[in-house]
Specification:
Blueprint: H1 3-9, H2 23-34, E1 45-50, H3 53-62, H4 68-71, E2 74-80, H5 94-112, E3 116-120, H6 125-132, E4 139-147, H7 161-164
Antiparallel strand pairs: 1-2, 2-4, 3-4
Helix pairs in contact: 1-5, 2-5, 3-6
The protein binds flavin mononucleotide (FMN).
Length: about 170
């Protein structure tokens, strides 16, 4: 699969079969995260791989998130570990962009491996931190559920290039 094919194949899947993710596929996804660019190459990231049923259930219930978190074989939790108060000259927090990129790299590699995914940002951070023993200073930016989907709904429509791209000026 080319990178473009993987990006085209990816779509958010919110219902999962019990099928386990093969270790080599999980490793490839984690390797993609490792290769992600970060501000100053500081790599202030910790990705927590959660597969234990009890932990996923706790997160699902206590962090008031969606059932797919419990259902999918793998839950990746993207945490920024340091410098979470650093604002870039552009006025955005660097760690948010770092975590977004890492999340995106993981999604594309997962698609390349034939895995289904969905980003989950609807969760209560404090509850996720409590369940996974994440230090107070870290921030949980995003989670990704990953596994084999039980839903074959079509890809969502995307805007055309004309709608989202302009040249030279806005
Ligand atoms: C920052 C961000 C947060 C998201 N949070 C959630 C979420 O909490 N729950 C969910 O079901 N989908 C979530 N999504 C998935 C989007 O709803 C989905 O990407 C969008 O509808 C486009 O569909 P597609 O991924 O199939 O292209 C999130 C996506 C992004 C980029």
């Amino acid at each position: 699969m080319t990178t473009m094919e993987a990006m085209a194949a990816r779509r958010s899947v919110r219902s999962y079969t019990p099928r386990k993710v093969e270790e080599d596929k999980l490793e490839r996804v984690l390797e993609a995260v490792r290769l992600t660019p970060s501000r100053h190459n500081e790599q202030n990231i910790r990705v927590i791989v959660v597969r234990e049923e009890a932990l996923k259930k706790k997160i699902c219930q206590q962090a008031k998130t969606q059932p797919m978190v419990e259902q999918a074989d793998v839950l990746l939790v993207f945490c920024a570990t340091d410098q979470t108060d650093f604002m870039m000259p552009c006025g955005q927090y660097g760690y948010v962009v770092d975590m977004a990129l890492a999340t995106g790299f993981a999604l594309v590699e997962a698609a390349d491996q034939g895995l289904d995914t969905c980003i989950v940002c609807a969760f209560e951070e404090a509850a996720v931190k409590a369940v996974l023993a994440i230090p107070e200073s870290a921030r949980v930016v995003s989670m990704v559920v990953m596994g084999y989907g039980a839903d074959d709904s079509p890809r969502r429509e995307k805007k055309t290039l004309e709608q989202i791209v302009s040249y030279e000026h806005f």
